[in-house]
């Protein structure tokens, strides 16, 4: 179990990204795929409407300024086929009337360019959680091999032995356990554990990884591994 959001049937959530700036669309898509979601892109309004019908997305990230149809018209057309799909608008405009126009037409949220990709992902996660697409959580426990973490009680155990962690150690371990066997870079860990606007250095990650190792791996077969030049990975033993 890695803690990612999934559809009620257990399949991947689907997100459609609509933006004519290729580099931006690729960046957003990469971040959304990292969440474990299936992502498709469209660079214009007509393609977006077509993709929405074929792909049946659970959420749409939609630029208002497109080369053919504008985002508001795209939303109207998509909503005729999928009236409940949540939509996050992207726009370079920040005037109050533009925000009101987007939300009045039926957009669920609004991000103004330039934006933090981390913030956008958090907004999309929030939209998906509020929609009916996401499976209801059945357990607050993350389990990787003999390591368990309860997100509600904040109890951590390895092979039944309770491990006391500080708040930051807990968040770091939770992030590792939500992504078992996946190599996480220092930058990704900084973004998730210390928030995207954290101004510190990557050596704080090394420091807290060492703290975790002393508590999780001390006297046992190691679960936290360093991938030189790439980052860190949590793997079950055996």
From TrEMBL:
It holds the Pfam family Trans_reg_C. It comes from the Bacteria. Residues 14-128 form the Response regulatory domain. Keywords: DNA-binding, Phosphoprotein, Transcription, Transcription regulation, Two-component regulatory system. PROSITE patterns: OMPR_PHOB, RESPONSE_REGULATORY. SMART domains: REC (SM00448), Trans_reg_C (SM00862). SUPFAM superfamilies: C-terminal effector domain of the bipartite response regulators, CheY-like. InterPro entries: CheY-like_superfamily, OmpR/PhoB-type_DNA-bd, Sig_transdc_resp-reg_C-effctor, Sig_transdc_resp-reg_receiver, WalR-like, WH-like_DNA-bd_sf. The keyword Transcription regulation applies. GO terms for biological process: regulation of DNA-templated transcription. One of its GO terms (cellular component) is cytosol. Residues 139-236 form the OmpR/PhoB-type domain. Residues 139-236 bind DNA. Coiled coil: none annotated. The modification 4-aspartylphosphate is found at residue 63. One of its GO terms (molecular function) is transcription cis-regulatory region binding. This is Two-component system OmpR family response regulator. The lineage of its organism: Bacteria, Bacillati, Actinomycetota, Actinomycetes, Pseudonocardiales.
């Amino acid at each position: 179990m890695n803690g990612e959001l999934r559809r009620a049937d257990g399949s991947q959530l689907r997100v459609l990204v609509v933006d004519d700036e290729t580099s931006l669309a690729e960046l957003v898509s990469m971040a959304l795929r990292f969440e474990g979601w299936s992502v498709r892109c469209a660079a214009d309004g007509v393609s977006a409407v077509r993709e929405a019908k074929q792909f049946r997305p659970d959420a749409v990230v939609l630029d208002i300024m497109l080369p053919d149809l504008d985002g508001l018209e795209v939303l109207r057309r998509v909503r005729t086929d999928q009236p409940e799909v949540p939509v996050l608008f992207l726009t370079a405009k920040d005037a109050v009337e533009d925000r009101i126009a987007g939300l009045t037409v039926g957009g669920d949220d609004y991000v103004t360019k330039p934006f933090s990709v981390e913030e956008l992902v958090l907004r999309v996660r929030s939209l998906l959680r509020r929609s009916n697409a996401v499976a209801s959580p059945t357990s607050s426990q993350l389990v990787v091999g003999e390591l368990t973490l309860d997100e509600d009680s904040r109890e951590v155990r390895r092979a039944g032995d309770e491990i006391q962690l500080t708040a930051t150690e807990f968040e770091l371990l939770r992030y590792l356990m939500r992504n078992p066997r996946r190599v996480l870079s220092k930058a990704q860990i900084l973004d998730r554990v210390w928030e995207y606007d954290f101004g510190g250095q990557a050596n704080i990650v090394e420091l807290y990884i060492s703290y975790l190792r002393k508590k999780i791996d001390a006297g046992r077969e190691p679960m936290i591994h360093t991938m030189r030049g790439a980052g860190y990975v949590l793997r079950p033993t055996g």
